[in-house]
Amino acid sequence: MSKYYKNFPRRLVSALLVMGVAMSFAQAGDRAEKYSGENRGKPAQPSQINAKFQQECSTCHIAYAPGLLPAASWRKVMGGLNKHFGSDASLTVQENKEITAFLVNNASNRWSASTAPLRITETAWFKRKHDSHEIPPTVWKNPKVKSPANCAACHQQADRGDFSERNIKIPK
Ligand code: HEC
Ligand code: HEC
Question: Which of 26, 76, 110, 145 has CB 3.0 to 4.6 Å from 39, enough for a Cys bridge?
Answer without folding.
Answer: 110
